[in-house]
Amino acid sequence: MKDIVQDLLKHLTLERLEENLFRGESQDIGSPHVYGGQVLAQGLFAASQTVEGRDVHSLHAYFLRPGDKKKPVVYEVDRIRDGKGYTTRRIVAIQSGKPIFNMSASFKIKEEGLEHQFEMPEVPGPEGLPNLTELGRQALAEIPDKLSRFLEWQRPIEFRPVQPTHLLHPEPAPPVRDIWIRAAGVLPDDPAMHKVLLAYASDYSLLATALLPHGLTFSQSVIRAASLDHAMWFHRDFRLDDWLLYSMDSPSMSHGRGFSRGNLFTREGKLVASVAQEGMIRQV
Question: What domains, with CATH codes, occur in the chain?
Fold first, then answer.
């Protein structure tokens, strides 16, 4: 487990080509294209390398083209603004001379002030729950070959669903999903890297929440899907090598698009981040 976490950290730590130009390699997780969470995380890493003394508090991204996992990705950072309290960066990911992804990220100084938050849902803890890799192996006999590598892949982030869904024969259910997530090994102490890794993990399962009322999953060959955009807000400090509850819902599916939201809580109930995503979802 330690090796796969170190391998992920290596892929998310970019090579600096020039002051505002970075290059990263893709990790093959068994999906047909570059995993969206990878470019989110690498883009945030690139932006973070151009900011000192401030923490990221939000990011807003659009996925423009499918990424080729066999080619490197170049990240260009535009230093739009360095204000007294806030810093803004624009990031473009490029492959073969074309942008595949763009993102804006905002950083700020630490500040004390008023506080409130949503309460964490009351759900069972992660102990004893099966992880996604175990659930995938149970369905391998019925899974098409093109999905089997993705399901067998040993994930550096562990996902334990509170309400597991059958990968091929799900029953329609309310559009609500809770998953415990944690890095599969000890991480460095750098708080910025924990946010980079949470951006990476946040793309898992979020859009799939929109399929729950329809009794469908992405493991079925009748569904075509792609992330369109992704937004995150970081509220409080956390460690991703301790369990976080990823509590998701999907308020709407219409016009070939699914919309999902998520909140992430520590085991103690502290709300540390929120996420929103819209994606293309079509039946074929």
Answer: 2-111+127-283 (2.40.160.210)
